[in-house]
Structures are given as structure tokens and as C-alpha cells.
Design brief:
Layout lengths: L2 H29 L3 H27 L14 H28 L10 H26 L2 H30 L6 H28 L6 H11 L7 E10 L2 E10 L5 H18 L3 E10 L4
Parallel strand pairs: 2-3
Antiparallel strand pairs: 1-2
Length: about 290
């Protein structure tokens, strides 16, 4: 299965899960008198749209290169990640606003059975986070990583709701707002996670140097190629699920231009074969001294 197919399958998993949970949370929150659960349902609803955006981004970013996009369409993925972060910030703002309004309003205590619903949700969302995060690592997908963190933030907001409802039920009358405070805390956590998702996507757009481990692999593979003495500069930029590489390779200064050209092609082919996550590889041949 290709990286694109793996990522798309993981996104469909997220979409189906978010639709189901949004309905379950919304109904449980309404009938169980829990605004924390309703807040959770609001986040899951935004997650549905966010997952559809991720799906679109993955499909679009994996379009092949064309005349106007010689490096492909991979940069669409971090742009989609920015939109996903926008959904998270919007949902956090709505939850915070409603929570503050409800804190000063008297309302009934949440129903005790809502804790069972939340317990099941927490387990499922943490499992979903681990599944989607694993797929994001396998495919080098930043938008899929953002989708995974949606699941983790959802699990945390559910934990906050669980704690808030438990406090309200244990302490009884006068502590109904514990549920709302839990929702307010959850909104703050969602905002914090939004930053954690936004930061690496911004680095990807800005070609930030954060790929030391991959550079080390590239150097190791390069020195296995006969005729390559060493490597110098190595620049990497990520676009979608691929890493584009500019590499300076040192060769014998006395070989012909044709031989240097052939060595560059041999090195490029070896790198793309042994490191399939690489996209465009540009080799610049440097003459070695005293070889």
C-alpha cells in the first residue's frame, strides 16, 4: 500500500469516528445535562470538517508534478494544516464563550451515566490518536499528524469533562458549574494544541532546517556509492510526504565531466532506491583535493 493510500485510509477512519462520536456526545450532553459533553460534541463536529480538509489536502498534495508545479503539489498539505488549526481555534473559542456564560447560570447536575459514555469515548479517542499518529509517521504527513492531534485533544477534553462531571456529582448542589469549568479548561488545552500543530507546519512552509537524522542517512548511503569520496552541503525541504534534497558530492578531481555526470546519476538513483521518502534529488559534483 502506498503512502497516499495509507494516509487516505487513516483519514476515512477519522471521519467515521468523528461523525459517530459527535452524535453520541451531543445526545449524551443534551439528555445528561452536561455542557462539557456538548462542548466535546462541538469539537468533534469541527473535527469532521477538519478531517475532510485533511483528506482533500492529502489527495491534492500527491498530484504529480506538472509544467506549472515542477516540484509537485506537496506544499498544499501544510496549508491545509493551517486551515485545520483554524477549525481548532474556532471550536475552542466557541467552547470558552459558552462555558463562561454557563458558569454564572444555574442549571441541573449532570446525569451520572454520562461518566460511562465519557469513559468509553476517552479510550476510543486515545486509540484513534495512536492509530492515526502511527500512519502520519509512516507517511511523513503533517496534515495527518494534525488530524491525530485532534484525536488526542478530544481525549483530553473528554478527561476534563469526566473530572468536571465527577466533581459536580460528588459535591452535589452548588457545584454544577464544575462541568462548565472543565469545558473552559478543555478550550485552553485545544488552543495550546493548536500551536503545537501550527508550529511544524509553519517550519515546513519556511524550509526550516529540522532534518538532521535524514541528512545523516543520506550521507551514509552516499558513501556506499563507488566513486563518491564524501559529501558536503546537504539541504532538505519537505513538500507533502516527500523530502527534496540538494546534495554536494565530492569526487575525484581528475575524472572527466561525463564520468562525474554518470556518478551523480548513480548517486541519485541509489538514494531514491534506498530512501523512498525522497522526492527530487539534485546532485552537485565537487572536485576532491589530492585524489
Amino acid at each position: 500500500m502506498s503512502n497516499e493510500q495509507t494516509a487516505i485510509k487513516a483519514t476515512y477512519f477519522s471521519i467515521v469516528g468523528n461523525i459517530s462520536l459527535a452524535l453520541i456526545k451531543g445526545l449524551a450532553g443534551f439528555f445528561g445535562n452536561s455542557y462539557a459533553l456538548i462542548a466535546d460534541a462541538i469539537e468533534s463536529t469541527t473535527d469532521i470538517f477538519a478531517s475532510f480538509l485533511v483528506l482533500f489536502g492529502i489527495k491534492y498534495s500527491n498530484r504529480p508534478a506538472d509544467k506549472n508545479h515542477p516540484y509537485g503539489h506537496g506544499r498544499a498539505e501544510p496549508l491545509i494544516t493551517f486551515l485545520v488549526v483554524g477549525f481548532l481555534i474556532t471550536s475552542a473559542t466557541i467552547i470558552a464563550y459558552e462555558s463562561i456564560n454557563n458558569i454564572g447560570t444555574s442549571h441541573d447536575l449532570p446525569k451520572s451515566w454520562t461518566l460511562y459514555v465519557l469513559g468509553a469515548i476517552i479510550i476510543w479517542k486515545e486509540y484513534s490518536f495512536r492509530v492515526v499518529m502511527k500512519r502520519s509517521i509512516e507517511t511523513n504527513s503533517s496534515s495527518l499528524k494534525a488530524d491525530a492531534w485532534h484525536h488526542r485533544s478530544d481525549a483530553i477534553t473528554s478527561v476534563a469533562a469526566f473530572i468536571g462531571i465527577s466533581i459536580a456529582l460528588i459535591l452535589g448542589k452548588g457545584y454544577e458549574s464544575a462541568d462548565d469549568w472543565a469545558a473552559l479548561f478543555a478550550s485552553g488545552f485545544i488552543l495550546f494544541n493548536s500551536y503545537l500543530i501550527f508550529r511544524p507546519a509553519l517550519g515546513e512552509i519556511m524550509d526550516e532546517h529540522v532534518y538532521d537524522d535524514l541528512i545523516e542517512k543520506i550521507r551514509e548511503v552516499s558513501q556506499q556509492v563507488e566513486g563518491i569520496i564524501d559529501t558536503e552541503k546537504c539541504f532538505i525541504r519537505k513538500a507533502g510526504m516527500k523530502y527534496h534534497v540538494d546534495l554536494h558530492a565530492i569526487v575525484n578531481a581528475n575524472i572527466t565531466v561525463k564520468e562525474g555526470h554518470e556518478l551523480a546519476h548513480k548517486l541519485k538513483d541509489t538514494l531514491t532506491e534506498k530512501l523512498p521518502e525522497l522526492g527530487h534529488v539534485l546532485i552537485h559534483v565537487e572536485p576532491g583535493e589530492n585524489h
